Amino acid sequence: MDLEYLGLDDFLLAALREDIGAGDITTNCCISESAVSTGAFIAKEPGVVCGLHVAARVFALLDRDIRLTPRLNDGDITKAGDVLADITGPSRGILTGERTALNLFQRMSGIATRTAEAVTAVSGTKTRIVDTRKTTPGLRVLEKYAVRCGGGSNHRFNLADGILIKDNHIVAAGGISAAISLARSACPHTLKIEIEAETLAQVEEALGAGADIIMFDNMPLDTMSEAVKIINRRALTEASGNMGERDLRAVAETGVDFISIGALTHSVKALDISLRFK
Amino acid sequence: MDLEYLGLDDFLLAALREDIGAGDITTNCCISESAVSTGAFIAKEPGVVCGLHVAARVFALLDRDIRLTPRLNDGDITKAGDVLADITGPSRGILTGERTALNLFQRMSGIATRTAEAVTAVSGTKTRIVDTRKTTPGLRVLEKYAVRCGGGSNHRFNLADGILIKDNHIVAAGGISAAISLARSACPHTLKIEIEAETLAQVEEALGAGADIIMFDNMPLDTMSEAVKIINRRALTEASGNMGERDLRAVAETGVDFISIGALTHSVKALDISLRFK
Amino acid sequence: MDLEYLGLDDFLLAALREDIGAGDITTNCCISESAVSTGAFIAKEPGVVCGLHVAARVFALLDRDIRLTPRLNDGDITKAGDVLADITGPSRGILTGERTALNLFQRMSGIATRTAEAVTAVSGTKTRIVDTRKTTPGLRVLEKYAVRCGGGSNHRFNLADGILIKDNHIVAAGGISAAISLARSACPHTLKIEIEAETLAQVEEALGAGADIIMFDNMPLDTMSEAVKIINRRALTEASGNMGERDLRAVAETGVDFISIGALTHSVKALDISLRFK
Amino acid sequence: MDLEYLGLDDFLLAALREDIGAGDITTNCCISESAVSTGAFIAKEPGVVCGLHVAARVFALLDRDIRLTPRLNDGDITKAGDVLADITGPSRGILTGERTALNLFQRMSGIATRTAEAVTAVSGTKTRIVDTRKTTPGLRVLEKYAVRCGGGSNHRFNLADGILIKDNHIVAAGGISAAISLARSACPHTLKIEIEAETLAQVEEALGAGADIIMFDNMPLDTMSEAVKIINRRALTEASGNMGERDLRAVAETGVDFISIGALTHSVKALDISLRFK
Amino acid sequence: MDLEYLGLDDFLLAALREDIGAGDITTNCCISESAVSTGAFIAKEPGVVCGLHVAARVFALLDRDIRLTPRLNDGDITKAGDVLADITGPSRGILTGERTALNLFQRMSGIATRTAEAVTAVSGTKTRIVDTRKTTPGLRVLEKYAVRCGGGSNHRFNLADGILIKDNHIVAAGGISAAISLARSACPHTLKIEIEAETLAQVEEALGAGADIIMFDNMPLDTMSEAVKIINRRALTEASGNMGERDLRAVAETGVDFISIGALTHSVKALDISLRFK
Amino acid sequence: MDLEYLGLDDFLLAALREDIGAGDITTNCCISESAVSTGAFIAKEPGVVCGLHVAARVFALLDRDIRLTPRLNDGDITKAGDVLADITGPSRGILTGERTALNLFQRMSGIATRTAEAVTAVSGTKTRIVDTRKTTPGLRVLEKYAVRCGGGSNHRFNLADGILIKDNHIVAAGGISAAISLARSACPHTLKIEIEAETLAQVEEALGAGADIIMFDNMPLDTMSEAVKIINRRALTEASGNMGERDLRAVAETGVDFISIGALTHSVKALDISLRFK
């Protein structure tokens, strides 16, 4: 469940520059350069922890003498009051980095927590919870990692690593069959072709045109069940469309392979975590 | 209520590169280079609109022949079903930019909507709703603009433009009076000094040490009322601490000048907006 | 056959800075700021033209009063002596940009030319010529575009948009079946799984493990024919391994779906093109 | 023969990002984070090795626990089958960096190999082989280093570090004498003035105008010999123009000081090198 | 008096690239890669030293085996002939970095020296010497640090961390009272409001409108004294306007709180420092 | 005398970001978005103007509706009170850009003014005034342009475009003859070789070793005259070493070809220029 992200340092430095501006005037005025502090990151509510190493890296970029020691791993469950990590080192760097570290740690833990709730909702079925491209600009790698930490799977990372023909594409391309045929002839042979369908007729057309994956967009439960039966494993199936507000178990019980939920990343409630000095 | 942001284009180009990766393979395979489309951005739920010009700029960066024509202004109220803007131009650019534009437009509108709810909750009092530094890394300028569009005011933009001595600073500096005294002697004379207080004794100490602004952190309502009376306009007052889950009207009625709410930006529910081709 | 590349300007500006350094001292000393020139880009040998719009953009970045007017389109065939484009505008900008423009134009045309030769070699068969990731660092988008202009197709753009399990992966993962099984359980459902095989036994194992695409690496022709028969359309097939020095028609006649050729981009002979002032 | 290049890390990180995209999905799915591998880089054909430290740096940027141990130095001759370097460390980093490292290593070795062939062709004469500005955009420092490793010398690095008045400059400046005179009066006194000449009359004019270096562009052998005699060491001499396809020894025997060859860098055949896991 | 500057390395790398260009050809040609040198930085005139750690960092970025050992601290006074620091390590890196290091070290020491002269001029009064935004583009953080090392204080770092209503703002806003009123209603509550006044009438208007700080712009000494009396500590006071050429003690004796001097940073005389090899 | 600088926009945007930070809070609070202003740039002291187009570009980057109309050209002489340029357009952009524009305009004019003084001091002799690499990091292109505008010539732009063997190189290389010999054998043939000499013996050694240019470092006038005679035009000659404080005419009368003056750029007095709104 580790995170490998070649651009992480650049991202974190940019985040620190945004938050620090011309300098942390409060810390530099009030705290001596030689002061050393010890503190703890504490969960104020239950959830799934994510972003421990990202938070650690924020502090390391400010001062390599700061040591953040996790007590849990990304993906672990925490309850209110748990100490998630200890921190010790030069006070200035800890105080200057606190907000940037928490902004990411709380957001990533919030995503992991919500994902875990969705995964739990469908447990026992064979349906997998997947994310979408409805992520925060600049944070996609971190947010999709948080989804994995919550037990979910990733859909496409970007527009280059999957064919997904949506409603507006179908309009512009002149129909489902036309769109699939165009995609088949031009796309790299390593990609599957996924297409959106809203009705059973569209499902049949997509299937006939050779779609590898069919996405049911905003479909009622009974239509979805019917669609799964029609497809009969000749294509993968994915339920989509405001899934953040649907009964996920009911959706899973239609037999779809995947449920994709934009709200996992577009409507995040930060997990409440605080840093306390001793 | 306009947004001036020198780095906007760089931010949006980075967002587009993150979402496009090596190329929008679906659009490039399925849609002819010469195709032209017309569509509309439609609100699927009520709220306050924010980000219209940001969305327009996303498309302009992809293809300057795309025209996004707003029907409202940032800060306006919308109801479900309203057309927020019309769009017309080369189909490829519209399809490729759709997700990036919506990711920002929906998020900014979500922040403006939540801010407007908070502002409404305290309307009639003299208390102002302000934001915090609990913003998404990379998006601070946009998120603080959205708070203004929702009727809120901005607190500090970064660590350089205000002295705010928080609990951990007080611990590391050796107390409230020491911290204020250090700040006074070293900080630029253009900045006010704000300090956090959790008890009435701390309020008295901060006042005696000459704080310009006193922040009440997680204080019960009756203590807060008492604190406002003690201060008696000798310093500005600010209520803080999980204000996203407090009764804002009751807090305002203690007489505090400002209520700062981290949840305005750290726990955003995206406003549901979609783009429909005609 | 057009090129859409969001980062093109940044790439070209970097290329210009590399070539110009602190300033084009020859041009600035010898040529008056107000001088205007007219010239032509001329092919000195036959081939397929590619990079006309890239060259035009180089000059536009230096001086928007320079007009480069193509007489052909990317992908067109030229013979020695043909005028490929006319150019007119401020002499300084043309002279300063000449080398950078030609370095790209000649290289891209060289790739398109070599690709077209490969495509011609297999014409009449159903086999498609595809490229690899053996491109020049920094130029992948341009080089893969040149392959398309020469009539070839693109394989993966990068490591994120396709599963391709190669010999060293198989060693490290503990075998073909193990590797495919691991990939299947963890990769996004939008991607196909391709695996390298060197023997018929490996082909059988890959097929049994459910590979979507099987790559024949450095396989003799008769083994390859046998492999195609064994697979019998249950997976796509790709021939690979020093294909730049093999008899492509003979390879195609084994019935493979794709031939991937690293030499298309790693061993390019620039097409000879020159700019002549009138 | 070492390489000092302040921007190397930035260049390599950009190359890695281009090749990795959103993540090396194959490696991350199939190979455990704790796996360790050992392998060897093996020459598949004879040539001159170049880029060993560049390759080593690619892996170090991905994972500092990877050790690449060269068995040769840049500039050394290899034969087919030789082990050029050993590598050991975390499997994931080695697999993810392999292609980027090889793309550079093979290209640089290809340039060094071709340069060495040219140097050998003129051995025993006093003529030196030099490169040109016909390099790949973004790779000039690496490619000119490879030329040095092959025994060649470098011509100008960019347009700022030498005056070279070419045919189109002469047209735009109004003649050879005018151009040299303008250059002399305005250029920094640290630079020599080089000018292109195609005929003996032009050679005489350049000499009379005080050129420091005269370049013979596409000149027949006997004219070149005559030109060298006329100049009689009053200026340096350089032969140029499709030298990649000329008889270099014959050119050298005219007595020219330098032969500049664009093909050293614009028409590179990558040296065949592979990485094999044990 | 230490410097914390998150972007320092990027700034120094850019400075090195500007000075090195395509490579330090003199050093690389004349000095062996294995050569090691020892030298000393010596003050050639008296002054206040500033930039020792910046200089050290320049060399560390070029070669981490170079050791620069300061004999003084930033802010210390030096006399002509003093050794400021010793340096030892690979000769190439020292020679290549010398100019960039000295360009910064000499400039920063020049600023600290001039600031110290101004501070000395007002010693014994309660007036503080402050800088302005008249800094060199790109060097603001370093130049404002040098002012602190010379004993001065910093005014605003940028346009975001203080309200300062200048003459042209007053013209455009329609007067002093209007401008202050607009600022009060819209600016973050953490900022003080400063305004420029040229006459006593303007001072009275600014005071009446609630200005926190009043800047006397180009005011004669007796008017300034009068203004200080009128204000009578109800606002902070700042003298400004060509203060680099005024009698600072006389200005201080009017009782102003601050004297801001643009010349501290816009008209710097570099302190003469040289590096001598032993 | 125009300036061509491919990176100018990036440099100016960075300068604006440094000065604007999170936003020009004064202007945005006090000035309406629709306000329009007219003003003039006025010289407050006599000098040589430089940077008019740079200033214009600063404003254009902020708002393309701002028009800055120069009344003079770069390199022209101004007297106190002259209007240098008119400006008109949206008030916000003018106010926000004023400081950045003036910081550059005043500095560049200060350099041009001081250079013109030096050029005047040696007028009538054949000696040329040249600059050095003692420029402000990040501003070299602009500062060397200002030197040209003041009538001076440029020395090397960076370490790649000239061989200059200085005292420390001589120490590290083991003497003058050794250093010149090493440079000759390894440097590109397009560069001249310059070397520093402090005594007549060193001058003789440099001449014997074939130096193209000999720099007299901190040499007394009579020694310098003697050196010029000894050299007798067999090499170019350059006087150097605290020339900012020497009698330039006396130096020129020794017959040296060039006088290089670091103080032109390292000890700049900004020309006093102000912007006044009407």
Mean pLDDT of chain A: 95
- The H/E string of chain A reads HHEEHEEEHEHEHHEHEHEHEHE
Q: Biggest interface between protein chains, with counts per chain?
A: E-F, 77 and 78 residues
Identify the strand order in the major beta sheet of chain A.
Answer: 6-11-10-9-8-7
Shape summary of chain A: elongated
Q: Tell me what portion of residues of chain A adopts beta-strand conformation.
A: 15-25%
Cα radius of gyration of chain A in angstroms: 22 Å
Residue share in helices of chain A? 40-55%
Structural class of chain A: alpha/beta
Major sheet of chain A, described briefly?
A: 6 strands, parallel
The count of DSSP E runs of length 2 or more, i.e. the number of strands of chain A, is 12
What separation lies between the terminal Cα atoms of chain A? Answer: 31 Å
The low-pLDDT segments of chain A are: none
Enumerate how many helices of chain A there are, as a single number.
11
Oligomer: homohexamer
Write a brief structural summary.
Six copies of one chain form a homohexamer. Helix content of chain A is 42%, strand content 19%.
